[in-house]
Specification:
Rossmann fold, six-stranded mixed beta sheet, alpha/beta, ATP binding, ABC_AA/LPS_Transport, 10 strands, 39% helix, binds adenosine-5'-triphosphate, four-stranded antiparallel beta sheet
Length: 260
């Protein structure tokens, strides 16, 4: 099997004694589009921060045969781990091509960057096609819509050869069409390119439409894991989203979506 799978064992993050991520065990295989959901403060962002090396953790986070815990951020990135943040971080005054070229350059190193190049590298052309921004190649990134900026950020991870992509609320603030487009893009990336994708998301409609598997975090712990149908039908999941007690089908559906 492709060694590019993520395996968290007892992953734990504490902030001055407060345990934000509590002995999490979780495996994500290539080709999977894993959604990480849970109420506010459940520890979702902290978990992907720990995997990307942004906060110290204990336990282990194995990826591509190495343990990421204790490694520096740049070293983790070099192992093919990439993430986006809730706010897109593109260079607004540079074009789509230039943004991708710089990201690809970061991977190539200073020597290659210093050489004059007259044409756009193949990897940039390919990423632009994947994210659907070929027609906007020469447009400054600052003029892109919110959704298009998120896609550009995903493209920047692809040209850096990221094989594990962790995306923090990618569709927040997007239009319905942009959400659909993003879902299809993530499916393409996961299934066709066989990359490992973890999406932190609050948008239940988006999760239902595109997740291939779901992990539910609550108070730093894994509460449930499985297919969309399995986690939606889990009474413990319904309870953390709705509070304890009996709920009408209509109320449950309003929060967790239809089909529960
Ligand atoms: N740097 C920090 N120092 C102290 N506490 C923190 C820090 N970062 C996060 N926390 C706490 O850890 C808990 C988990 O936060 P986190 O942002 O990971 O949750 P989340 O599931 O991503 O929530 P949301 O969906 O609201 O973004 C929260 O109680 C938060 O206040």
């Amino acid at each position: 099997m492709n060694a590019d799978y993520l395996e968290l064992t007892n992953l734990t993050v504490s902030f001055d004694g407060f345990v934000a991520v509590d002995r999490v065990n979780m495996s994500v295989l290539p080709g999977d589009l894993r959604f990480l959901i849970g109420p506010n403060g459940a520890g979702k962002t902290t978990l992907i921060d720990a995997v990307s090396g942004l906060v110290p953790a204990t336990g282990s986070a194995r990826w591509a045969g190495e343990d990421l815990v204790g490694r520096k951020v740049h070293r983790i990135a070099r192992l093919g781990v990439g993430r986006t943040f809730q706010t897109a971080t593109v260079f607004e005054e540079l074009t789509v091509t230039q943004n991708l070229d710089i990201a690809a350059g970061a991977r190539r190193g200073v020597l290659t960057l210093a050489r004059r190049r007259t044409r756009v590298p193949e990897v940039v052309v390919k990423a632009m096609e994947t994210i659907g921004l070929t027609d906007l190649a020469e447009v400054p990134a600052g003029t892109l819509s919110h959704g298009q900026k998120q896609w550009l950020e995903i493209g920047m991870l692809l040209v850096q050869d990221a094989r594990l992509l962790m995306l923090d609320e990618p569709v927040a603030g997007m239009s319905a069409e942009e959400k659909d487009e993003t879902g299809r893009l993530l499916r393409r990336i996961a299934a066709d390119a066989d990359l490992t994708v973890v999406v932190v998301e609050h948008d239940m409609d988006f999760m239902r439409a595109f997740a291939t598997s779901v992990t539910v975090l609550h108070a730093g712990k894994v509460l449930a894991e499985g297919s969309v149908e399995q986690v939606q039908a889990d009474p413990r999941v319904q309870e953390v989203y709705l509070g304890p007690g009996e709920h009408s089908k209509a109320v449950t559906e309003a929060v967790l979506g239809e089909g529960v």
